[in-house]
């Protein structure tokens, strides 16, 4: 058993970005906070499935070139190698949970 508190972890970008709560041995998961104007850059995975569950705010998620609006309560499951990016083009913060399976930390291709 492993227990963590989100408050004890830090965002990769200081006050926003990716915050891992668990890394391996089987899954990666955590939260992402995007402030207005921030984005999760375009990428895909060769083997990893990635799921996003939106907790707060409204964002634009682009999957395989198609734009979708994401609001609190929406979930998106992306199967490798679906290309994706997330943009906070609103005037409030966007917060989401992400889950990546299996744990393959090097399986990310940016574009």
Concise account of the structure shown:
With 111 residues, the chain is an all-beta fold.
Task: Outline the low-pLDDT stretches.
Answer: none
- Helicity, as a percent range: under 10%
Inertia-based shape: globular
When the domains are counted, the total is 1
Number of helices: 0
Strand neighbour order, sheet with most strands: 1-2-9-4-7
Number of strands: 10
Assigned CATH architecture: Sandwich
Q: State the separation between the terminal residues, measured CA to CA.
A: 37 Å
CATH-defined topology:
Jelly Rolls
> Biggest sheet: strands, sense, closure?
5 strands, antiparallel
What order do the SSEs take from the amino end to the carboxyl end, as H and E?
A: EEEEEEEEEE
Provide mean pLDDT, rounded.
Answer: 97
Task: Write down the Rg.
Answer: 13 Å
Outline the structure in words:
This protein has strands at residues 17-23, 28-34, 39-44, 49-56, 58-63, 66-71, 75-78, 84-87, 94-101, 109-110. The chain has no helices and ten strands. 0% of the residues lie in helices and 52% in strands.
Sum up the structure in keywords.
mainly beta; Jelly Rolls; 111 residues; five-stranded antiparallel β-sheet; 0% helix; 10 strands; single chain
What does the secondary structure layout of this molecule look like, with pairings?
Layout: E1 17-23, E2 28-34, E3 39-44, E4 49-56, E5 58-63, E6 66-71, E7 75-78, E8 84-87, E9 94-101, E10 109-110
Antiparallel strand pairs: 1-2, 2-9, 3-8, 3-10, 4-7, 4-9, 5-6, 5-8
């Amino acid at each position: 058993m492993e227990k963590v508190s989100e408050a004890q972890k830090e965002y990769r970008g200081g006050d926003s970005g990716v915050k891992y709560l668990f890394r391996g041995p089987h899954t990666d998961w955590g939260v992402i906070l995007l402030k207005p104007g921030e984005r999760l850059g375009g990428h895909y995975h060769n083997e990893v499935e990635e799921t996003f569950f939106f907790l707060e705010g409204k964002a634009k998620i682009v999957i395989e070139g198609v734009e979708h609006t994401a609001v609190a309560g929406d979930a998106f499951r992306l199967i490798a190698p679906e290309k994706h990016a997330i943009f906070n083009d609103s005037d409030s913060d966007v917060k989401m949970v992400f889950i990546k399976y299996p744990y393959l930390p090097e399986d990310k291709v940016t574009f």
